[in-house]
Amino acid sequence: xxxxxxxxxxxxxxxxxxxxxxxxxxxxxxxxxxxxxxxxxxxxxxxxxxxxxxxxxxxxxxxxxxxxxxxxxxxxxxxxxxxxxxxxxxxxxxxxxxxxxxxxxxxxxxxxxxxxxxxxxxxxxxxxxxxxxxxxxxxxxxxxxxxxxxxxxxxxxxxxxxxxxxxxxxxxxxxxxxxxxxxxxxxxxxxxxxxxxxxxxxxxxxxxxxxxxxxxxxxxxxxxxxxxxxxxxxxxxxxxxxx
Length: 243
Prior knowledge:
Strand order of the largest sheet: 1-2-4-3
Distance between the termini: 14 Å
Helix content: 40-55%
Oligomer: single chain
Shape: globular
Radius of gyration: 18 Å
Number of helices: 8
Strand content: 5-15%
Number of strands: 4
């Protein structure tokens, strides 16, 4: 299927991609609010977990294939997180550290989702930062390696309003880890039209800039600056996957 973003320039796409990620995040967060009234806070948490675990492995693998960065290591996981709908620039300020292929860390210098829920009380903070994130981070990693484990170094509730970073996590891949199982809902999601949609592969360029994002992520830079080095063709694939 031809991308409807095909006519946009690389400069335009570099502006558009973060905005589409943010739009997707805000649409989802507003939907979770509507779930609270009929199902209560526990029901909303269950919906959020199933939604993430059913969708994330599918769109993460699709992005890896379209952008040609398939792999099985921590670096591959971090490349996917940089373009994940759950980590939009300006709303979530992710920072990544790679120790080696099988060990890494990330932390959030700023978490817009935390800013949303902190005024609602500790139950909502724990619901998001513990109940939701414990199973869903691993569900995202499973698209790369079923033996990946993402575990907290520290996370909210915060001891004080000025505590930074907002949270920090380790990512470790080890053969001794049990393989992560797919959530049953993923079988349902795979049958949807959205899941079956294939992205056009990135097309080659001729001016020495790589089409694959193998070198897009100097891990010490800010999140927004990591998107710009992508060439136009990969960014068009990102736009289609988000939408």
